[in-house]
Amino acid sequence: MKNSKQLHRGQNMWQMPQSEAEYIAGRNPVMEALRSDASLDTIYISQDSGGLHEIVSLAKEQGIPVKIVSESKISQLTGGAVHQGVVAQGACGRYASLEELLQIAEERGEAPLLVICDGIQDPHNLGAIIRTAEAAGAHGIIIPKRRSASLTTTVGKTSAGAVSWLPVARVSNLVSAMETLKDRGVWIYGTDASGSSYTKQDYTGGTAFVIGSEGFGIGRLVGKSCDGMISLPMFGKVNSLNASVAAGIFLYEAVRQRMAASAT
User: Fold this and answer.
1) Nearest 5 degrees, angle CA 127-CA 131-CA 133?
2) Is residue 78 a contact partner of residue 23, using CB atoms and an 8 Å limit?
3) How large a percentage of the chain has pLDDT more than 90?
4) Strand partners, 209
5) Which of 6, 92, 95, 108 is the most exposed place for a label (fewest CB within 10 A)?
6) Does residue 119 or residue 81 have the better pLDDT?
């Protein structure tokens, strides 16, 4: 598989609605946003912080204003989130279209590998899923417009900057999006305890994993639209895993299979 870091660096192909502009907090997320040429308006740096010379240098190279402000001002901008003395004003990511996710896979010469988040409302979980999916070389994340976390500051922070590299498509109707994917040759696997073992399926072709909400799992209509249901073996007394942990296991099984197939 090709290195996911080669994907569209420096290209502004996803556009966040202006009304959803956010603040990107933390040194690593701000640095990744700068490296990916994200649309940033201003960078605010605490007058009490040090070690931010590279961020300041990159910002100046890109013509992004840098303002030195008080620690309390940065805390106010981020709503009290951990910021490490730096925050950038702008969207923490840009929404892509479903077609663009498929185009990315085609340009890389790979079968699509996607994650569909069905009602993931915890921004920490969404950020962690984005981080893992980017590391696994996935081509994108799909989220619904309603009953889902969006690309907020918390998501950007939790993703450790991965949201600057991995496109996220936000769709009006997950079921319709799934039908579009199936028409394009993508097999969709829902994740549920009643499903078959996740190691019994073939993920070397176009694959999308549906990760359900933290409290309710996959919705009924979304579940009916899946090509199959897969599960993880559970041996402890707790019968579920965190959504981002489960997503990571499924994604890396796909990575393992694809690497094995390419080696033969």
Assistant:
1) 115
2) yes
3) 48
4) 115, 189
5) 6
6) 119
- pLDDT, tens digit (0-9, with 9 covering 90-100), for 48-79: 777 788 999 998 888 888 989 988 888 888 77
Q: pLDDT (tens digit, 9 = 90+) per residue, 83-99?
A: 888 998 875 666 899 99
pLDDT, tens digit, 9 for 90 and up, residues 9-56: 333 333 333 334 468 888 998 898 888 766 677 899 988 777 788 999
Which distant-in-sequence residues (6+ apart) come within 8 Å of 192 by Cβ? 212, 217, 218, 223, 229, 230, 231
Eight-class DSSP state of 242: -
Return the amino acid letter for 186. V
Residue 38 neighbours by CB under 8 Å, 6+ apart = 12, 24, 90, 91, 93, 94, 164
Compute and round to an integer the Cα radius of gyration of the chain: 19
pLDDT (average), residues 141-159: 85
For residue 57, what are the CA distances in angstroms to 44, 50, 85, 105, 145? Answer: 13, 14, 16, 33, 36
Q: Residue 81 CA to chain centroid, in angstroms?
A: 20
Task: List the one residue out of 111, 141, 134 whose CA is nearest residue 262.
Answer: 111
The whole-number pLDDT of residue 2 equals: 34
Residue 61 to residues 1, 55, 103, 162, 205: CA-CA distances in angstroms? 33, 10, 31, 22, 42
Residue 202 pLDDT exceeds 70:
yes
Q: Which one-letter amino acid corresponds to residue 240?
A: S
Residue with tokens 């965190």: 242
Q: Provide the sign of the torsion angle of the four alpha carbons 144, 150, 156, 160, taken in this order.
A: negative
Cα(233)–Cα(141) distance, integer angstroms:
25
